[in-house]
Amino acid sequence: MGIFDFLGGSGPDKALKLKSKVTQKYGDPNSRQKALQQLGEMKIPEAVTVLMHRYTITVEPLTTDADEKEHVFELIKGFGKDAVAPVTDFLRKSEQATSWAIRVLEALQSEAEVTTSVVETLAALSAHYMRDPQKKIVLLHYVTGKQDERIAPAVLPYLDDMADDVKIAALKALGPLKHEPAREPILKLTQGDTARRVQVAAQQAADESGFKA
């Protein structure tokens, strides 16, 4: 009998069964914390995936929430490179906890590798409407200020996003990149019936890129 049989199922199955405890907002916090520790000791990809779901909830008091999330961060770091694939998959599929997924990847990978994951996720999301645009905004903020030839083409479609906050985040990312294909889309946002704050951000991006009408 293996250790996971003793715990009550195979490794992946046991990890998935612990998800309900990990995401339990109410009740005895010791049960949730014990589940987190068990997952940290499993050393299988499925355990990382379940641990990441702790970032999708907030518990009271907030000090406990912050402590647990930092603990989960350290637990996932303990998986080393084995955590990269499940965290990257979580980043692409989940609409929540984007900043935590990026933070974990930053602890395990080079900036170029993390940028690859973020750019690929941006490319996949660009055509999708999201009721809550926060994930897009976090991703756009990550690439802002970075010089990488892959960034501008991935960001450009977000100038057409339905959310003004996404447009503004995209404009801030594109401004320093002086991406010629962005000239007309940026200038278009400086006029017409575009929201005033988007027009201001577009003008700033145009000025930064050296684009003139």
Globally, the shape reads elongated
Beta-strand content estimate: under 5%
N-to-C SSE string, H for helix and E for strand = HHHHHHHHHHHHHH
Number of strands: 0
Instruction: List the total number of helices.
Output: 14
Q: Ranges with pLDDT <50 over ≥5 residues?
A: 1-9
Terminal-residue CA separation? 73 Å
Mean pLDDT: 94
Radius of gyration (CA) equals 21 Å
Main sheet properties: none
Share of helical residues = 55-70%
Query: Which secondary-structure class do the elements indicate?
Result: mainly alpha
Secondary-structure topology with pairs:
Blueprint: H1 3-7, H2 11-17, H3 19-22, H4 29-42, H5 45-52, H6 62-77, H7 84-93, H8 98-108, H9 111-125, H10 134-143, H11 151-155, H12 164-174, H13 183-188, H14 196-209
Helix pairs in contact: 2-5, 4-5, 4-6, 5-7, 7-8, 9-10, 10-12, 12-14
How would you sum up this structure, described in words?
This protein is mainly alpha-helical. 64% of the residues lie in helices and 0% in strands. Helix 10 packs parallel to helix 12. It is elongated. The N terminus is likely disordered.
Defining key terms:
213 residues; mainly alpha
Task: Summarize the entry for a quick read.
This protein has 14 helices and no strands. It has 213 residues and is mainly alpha-helical.
